[in-house]
Design a protein that fits this description.
Number of domains: 1
Structural class: alpha+beta
Order of helices and strands: HEEEEEEEEEE
Helix content: 10-25%
Largest sheet: 5 strands, antiparallel
Shape: globular
Number of strands: 10
Distance between the termini: 39 Å
CATH superfamily: Jelly Rolls
Strand order of the largest sheet: 1-2-9-4-7
Radius of gyration: 17 Å
Strand content: over 45%
CATH topology: Jelly Rolls
CATH architecture: Sandwich
Length: 129
C-alpha cells in the first residue's frame, strides 16, 4: 500500500510538468544564410539558429541531408529513433546523418546553431508519425 501511495504522489507531482510541456511553444528556427554546395549543384548549405523555450520540442522528423549542430546555450535532448536519448550541454555538438529519424526537446531555455547540407527544393524538415 505504501508503494502505491508513493507512486500516486509521484505521478501527481509530475503531472504539472507534463501539462506545461504540452503548452510550450514550438522551437523557432531562423535561417541565417543559404548557399550552394560547390561540389554538388543539387544541394545547398543552410545555416540556422534554433531557439527552444523551456519544455518545447520537435517530434520525430528527418532532414534531406546532414545536420551538424552545436548547443550554444542551455541543454538539448536528442533521441534517434530506436536509441536512448542523449543530452547535449552548452558547447557540445552533434551530427544527424541524412534521413535519420530523430526528435529533440529542451527542458530549459536553449539555443542551437545548426548547419545543414541538404537537397535543394526539398523541405528542411519532414515530420514522421
Amino acid at each position: 500500500m505504501r508503494r502505491l501511495a508513493v507512486a500516486v504522489v509521484s505521478i501527481a507531482l509530475a503531472a504539472p510538468a507534463f501539462s506545461l510541456a504540452a503548452d510550450a511553444p514550438a522551437p523557432v528556427r531562423h535561417v541565417v544564410q543559404t548557399g550552394p554546395v560547390s561540389a554538388a549543384a543539387d544541394e545547398q548549405i543552410v545555416a540556422t539558429t534554433v531557439d527552444f523555450a523551456p519544455g518545447s520540442s520537435l517530434g520525430f522528423h528527418t532532414h534531406p541531408g546532414e545536420e551538424a549542430g552545436v548547443v550554444v546555450a542551455g541543454e538539448l535532448n536528442v533521441e534517434i529513433q530506436g536509441q536512448a536519448p542523449k543530452a547535449f550541454k552548452t558547447g557540445e555538438g552533434f551530427i544527424i546523418p541524412r534521413g535519420t529519424v530523430h526528435r529533440v526537446w529542451a527542458t530549459g531555455q536553449t539555443r542551437v546553431v545548426s548547419t545543414y547540407v541538404v537537397d535543394k527544393d526539398k523541405p528542411l524538415v519532414t515530420m514522421k508519425p
